[in-house]
Structures are given as C-alpha cells and as structure tokens.
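Margin note from the TA: students keep mixing up input and output lines. Inputs are the sequences; the output is the structure of the whole complex. Example:
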Amino acid sequence: MTANALQITDLRKSYDTGVEALKGVSLEIKPGEFFGLLGPNGAGKSTLIHCSTGLAQPTSGQIEIFGHDAIDHYKEARMAVGLAPQDLNLDWFLTLEESLDYHGGYFGMPKKERKERTAELLETFSLSEKRHERTRTLSGGMKRRLILARALMHRPPLLILDEPTAGVDVELRLELWHYCQKINEEGTTILLTTHYLEEAEQLCSRIAFINEGEIVASGTNAEVAERFGTSSLEDAYLELVGRKELSRAKVESEDEL
Amino acid sequence: MSPDQIRFLSLVRREVNRFMKIKRQTLGAPLLETFLYISVFGAALGSRIDKLHGVDYVVYIIPGLIMMAWVTNAFANSSSSLMQQKFQRSIDDQLSSPASPMELLLGFSLGGFLRGGIVAIVTFIVSSLLVDLPVRHPGLLIVTFILIGFFFSQLGVLIGLRAEQFDDVAFAQTFILQPLIFLGGIFYSITLLPEPFRTLSQLNPIYYMISLVRYGFLGFSSTNIALSFLFLTIVTGVLFAFNYRLFKRGYKLRA
C-alpha cells in the first residue's frame, strides 16, 4: 500500500503562552491530491503546517510525510516537502539566484543541478532579469513568485502553500493557480491553505474546514457544503464562523424585497 | 560530495557570503579600528611608556589586539547574523530543511569564526611588517586562537539566539564583552595593578586567554599556561555543548 503524502494523527500543539492551537487534529492527504485547508484567522492552519515542516514542535500526536515520521526521521520527511510560507521570509542580503542556490544546497543538490534548476525556475516565474538583484528590491508579487520557486527548488513531491495568494493582484493569482494546477497534474501533491473560497473551489479536489484547532468537516466541496446544509462552500464557511447573515443568497433575497 | 557535505557547505557559504557582501563594515572597519589602536597606543603613546616584561610597549599590546580582533568579530558576526535571520524569518528556510541541529549550529558559528580569523590574520601580517613581532610558540598559539575564535563565535550564537530585539546584542557587546576585553589586560600587565583590582582581574576569563596568546607570541606569561589552556578548552567545550542542547531543543527557533 502506498503511504499517504501527509498523514496526521491526533496532533496537538500548545504554545508556551498556554494557547492550545491544535486540539487533536487528524488528516490524511493522498499522493496526487490537491487538498485545501480552510478556516478563519487563528484557526490553526499555519500551526499545522509549521508542525509538519519542523518550524514548530508538536506537543503530541504523529505526522508522517510519505511514510516518514516528521520527528524521528525528519531528514527524509523534510526532503519530501516544499514550503511556501505565508510570510515573505526572504533574506535581504541574498540575490534571487543565491536564494534558490542555497536552498538547493540545504537539500543536498549538487552544484550543476542547482544551477540548471535555478535558471529553469527563474525563467518559469519571469524573474530571470532580476537574478543578480537582492531580494529586498523586488515587488511584493515578485517576492511571492520567488518564495514559490524556492519551495519547488528541490522538486518536492509534497508542496505546502500557506496562503500563497494573500495580497497579490488578479493576474498573479491566476498565474499561480495555473502553475499549481499544472504541477499537480504532473504528480505533485499540494496542500493549500487559503481564505479565498473560490480558490479552493477552483483548485482543490478535497478540502477540510479547521476551526479553533479542530477539523470540523472534510471531503469534496459538495460534501462539505452538504455537511453544513448549504448550497455553496461560502455559505458553509459562514455557517462555520457563525456569520450566516452575511450569506450572499440571503443578502440578495433581502435586496429583492 | 555527499548530500550532507553539500548541505553543510551551503550553510557555511551563506554565512561567509553575508559578511563578504558588506566587507567594508565587517572586515574594513575592524581592520581600521585595530590599526588606530596600534597607532595611538603603540606608536604615539608607546614611545613614552617603559618596556613591559622586557619588550617595547607596542609589541606588548599587539598580541592582545590581534586576539581582540578575532574575538569581537567572531562574536559580532554570529550574533547579528543569527538575530537578523530570526527577525526576517528567513531562518525558516534552513530550519525546514533536512539540516541537523549540529549542522545548523556549526553553520551559524563558522561564519563568525572565519570573519574573526581573516581580520586577525591580516592584522598579524601587517603588524609583522611594521614591528618585529616574535612568535615563540606557534603550535600553542594556533590552537589557542582556534579555541578562542570558536568560543566567541559560540557566545555570539547564544546571544543572537536569545535576542528578542536589536538592543539585546548591542547590550551584550558594549556592556559586557567590551569591558571584559579591555579590563583583561590587553593594554597593560595585570601585575602592575594595585589590589583589589589585581585579584578581581583574575576572575575575568579573558585575562587567561590574553595570557595564553601573549605567551604564544612573546614567550612569557603571568598565568599558569597549562591551567589556562585547560580552562579555555573546558569553557569552549561546555559552551558548545550548551548551545548544541539549545539547538536540539529548538530553543527560540522552533515554536
């Protein structure tokens, strides 16, 4: 049996401040899936991602990435993951080329391979002309593209995108969507967190709603909407956060009156 | 080269690249500072100061100045590089990579070690051209410098790791490290001090380091060399082990 791309079992995470960010989350993402994790701010989406990528230490529970335990066999587990974080966490001192080259180095890629992959990704994301410039000179959209290129540098079979389209213009959002769909079709498993429900509807084959550190629903878009007794994902989300009065269907019917 | 070797070299290359990109600040400034000390204290004032332990004053202070260059630069580089990467969160790129705690710790500290080493070696070469600087015990001197450079780059890592604001590193550097270095006997012999300052100076760990370095260059020492060397080896080992524990725990690195 093939191992799941990501298998999370009863994951709990409490911070030193006493905040319990994850309260026994279980989740499985199969190889090749495009999976969406949705939920309001502070629901635990980033904590779940951080625990899966070594940026946070789980309090209890288990995380396996393609069958490798994220704690006991962290090297193998992390080799399989590419992370595009929510923050534009680029090093200001480095050029674009260096940012990708060092990342490839951290993942053990030989020099020749790093060079070729760097050129290929900079070309793909229309950043070739800027390759010798320092990252701090880039616009927000360019930084976002570079973050994605960096996550893909070591050809990870699992790509984790933490709100990749937050604050980007429509053109770049569509560009990123197309690219993600393409690499998903080519076999890369994708875990996407987003606030944009249309993004999840458009891209994801399955989704999960997370709220206050717990998975409250998961399945296909239709299954999740049905679970909340609504006709759309957006209405299901509004149900989840207790704001169903904002439903577009409700607002439109009131307008007609 | 194995993937592990490539990873480790990449971590070190990144640190070296950082200080080479701002070399006016990281290499130029400390070199100028060291030569200002040599000019003012050695050449200008030194001619009016008697010989110390049978050597000219300028020759007496140069070993300490070379050590100070290595110490302050090793500390400054490790602490500020780690702190900046933490604040930018760019450190997450290394933390989410397969790098082990040991690889990360050595990567962050070797940058400082090498920067300090470059400044110290250039200072040594130029000083040797300006004055007749003996090297009595080269073997001991090299090992001592390696231990001292490693100790202070580790100390920089520790301070950078703990830092929560830019002030924290500046505070440690200005209010703790600098006074300890100056009061450790770079510019004078502790034996000239009256009590209780003479005894108090013996509580300063840097006193023993300067003593070892001066012994390596000039061949005389005010401390027991074997004990000083043992002390230096132990404190370096203990600090390294302590930092390794913190990195393994993910202290202030992994939430």
